[in-house]
Amino acid sequence: MSPGEAQPDQPNLASTPPRANQSSHVSNLKSTPLSRGASAASDHIGLIGAKINQIRPWIERDIEKTKTCNIDVMLGDLLQRASNDPETPQPELLDECLDAVLQVCNGKFSTKEKNPGQIFRSSDIAQSLRDYSLPMIETKSYAPFIKATNTALACLEEIPVEGMRVTSSDLEMICQRNDMPIYQKHQTEKSKRMPDVFILPSKSSKEASSDAANPPWDHRVQNAAKKPKGGRIFWKDVLASIEFKRTPNFALEGPPASYKVENYTPTYPEYRKVPVREASAGPATGVSDLQIQAEQPAPDLPPPRRSNCDNVVKNTNGSSKRKAEDDEESAAKRAKTTNTDADRPLDVTVQTALYAAEMFAANIAVTHLLNLIIVDNIVWIWYYDRQGIIQSSGINFMKDLPRFMVLLYALQRFNLGDWGRNTQFEEVVEEGVHKTTLDGVVVKDGVHKADLGGVDLVIHTSSKERVTHYGLKGRATNVFPVTSEKLSAEFPDIKKDRMVAKNFWAEEDRISEPEILKKVDEIAAKESDVEGHVPQLLWYCRFPNLTRAVREALGIPEAKKGSRVLYILVFRKLDPITALYGIELFDVWQQCILCHIALWKGGVYHLDVRVLNDYDLSSLKINAGPMGNERTGTVPFMALDLLTPEGQRGEVAHLYRHDLESFVWVLVWVCLRYENGVLLAASSHLLDEWATVDPVTCGEKKRTFLDRFVHFERDWMDPQIWKLVEDSLEVLEDDKHRQVKNKIARARKARKGIRTDAEEEKEEKKTGEYDLFHALTATETWERTLKRLCAYLPES
């Protein structure tokens, strides 16, 4: 096998036949400049061996930098999407829709009679809101809210506004109570969530009539307000989730006698507060240790006639905690929101973000999501995509019902694309197996043949070999087995079932992986250590979805920073290095190191060696790196220098020796988590915490491991391979001591007023990198194992 794949715990890609003759040459090694905002942690390595609840710190980290946007600007964008001409700015839509929904708000509208006795009267909305305002515990408030919302939707469906779409009978939305467990499988793990209320297509709403396009009156206002009895709801069907927090047994201010359209009045608080960890690089801590923060709202865009964008409150960091917020949940609700591992309640923003993560995972290539948070009588819109999170300012739907009605009016006219589904991917079920097809995609800058045209990919999303992502922002890499008649005909040497597709969200300003692979191919043509050891890219497509577009529309500052774009790449399927053990493991591992160093010297800096077949985090020598806050590296395998507060702040340049150190951590990981190429049972997993804690804490745990690694040897290990692990870790320790001595020497010189020459320090770094590689490959165990390998392999 070859260095095609070093992806621990994730069964997808790797290998070519081993070669007996390996070079061990080294020339001057150069460091790569620190990528702007990089040298930090990547998404966690996956869910194999990690419980879903352990992902919570990563979710909390992602919501810390939530952006904010005035509600009128957000509503204007949602209406634009739901219009007949979404590409042409129509700033007048918000005012026109506010005027149009006023008759519904004031109880002066009734629907046509679709079926006998099926008439909805907007006057019933006020009664449902009065019921909602009565003192009650949270769970009792779902029913009146759902009745008011579904009655409003029935009425709004018949309200025309020039330029706006009519509602789609295929996607007629309905508000449905859930408040019961929803399960979803993530590779070997199953998640359990219990959202309060969903927005669903009516055909997915439980206990609906057979005529799903026209659910009867009693379902919309009665059955939908109860826990579903017709079977469980699936995340793949959810359009949005609504999470409630209610001050128990506290009367809210009810609706006024009538409404008129007025300028927006900021709610109190205007933005839902986001829990922020005290240390930006530290672990998520208990509730008592959380600070409360929201980023400044986006600058105001030119407002519609009555949208009071000029009055957006700028200070959202003040103390605006509601009176009884610490006790705003019932006992039953607390049980639902408690993380059994961390033993602390989830903030509503974290709960809702976890639901977003489930929704991202349920459908392939989701572009964005919308969820709602409701605290008492205030609703906030939360928008999620792979660039980050945006929340709107609040709507008090008792005092400002027209704006809440406009929100429903826009969402009711959304198509699947507006809800964030990538409509180029179509789910099909064949013999009970779920698959996704991608047909007719136009290839731009395709590989091998420019006339490939569309491609008929069938993505096997139910395959046990899939590698799926769970989280919010970032690359969100997913890998699936695929089949394609066109690609099979184009590459007849590749078996039909030996192709995989990787879809991920790359930073828009980062040099693309296909471009990097072109450079890799150039190096492979000259370097024997690279030739035959790099991925074979069969086809790729760059989709037009740019995450910065919504930020530009909403006026979010630095909208382009960290903007992402969706790619799908198809490769020849390889096998995982984790399937190897003993001398074969050493063979592939050392080939990986030699291939990697040849690429580095050729100007390709990999930066994430867990997957040598994966170049979406790589950079070229001539490229300055990502423009946003890309996290470069995979935490459990990152060098200790990078798992420090300084490393996480981007103050440590990513050097060659950091990647070389990562190879050692990969070897440690494989040796301690696999027995003869098989992943150990969960009860026997070692090093789990490396994959679930934050980067700085992971660094601390790895340093502790270095002090105790002699206690980790297991009976099943090949003694010589374990001795190689010991020698490699000893090399790392010696290198660390050398670095410390050099730092002390420089500090002493500085105290004496002796300045260290820049060229001297630069040469010292080069020498250090050279020494680390030489020390690793010159150990007695390395040389002995290499001789054993040569005896093991047949002569070429």
UniProtKB/TrEMBL annotation:
Q: Where is this region: Disordered?
A: 1-37, 203-223, 295-340
Domain of life assignment: Eukaryota
Supply the PANTHER family for this chain.
Answer: FUNK1 11 (PTHR38248:SF2), FUNK1 6 (PTHR38248)
Q: What spans are recorded as compositionally biased (Polar residues)?
A: 9-34, 309-319
UniProt cross-references to InterPro entries, sorted A to Z: Pkinase_fungal
Origin organism lineage: Eukaryota, Fungi, Dikarya, Basidiomycota, Agaricomycotina
Species annotation: Suillus discolor
Protein name, UniProt field:
Fungal-type protein kinase domain-containing protein
**Fungal-type protein kinase domain: which residues?**
329-522, 624-671
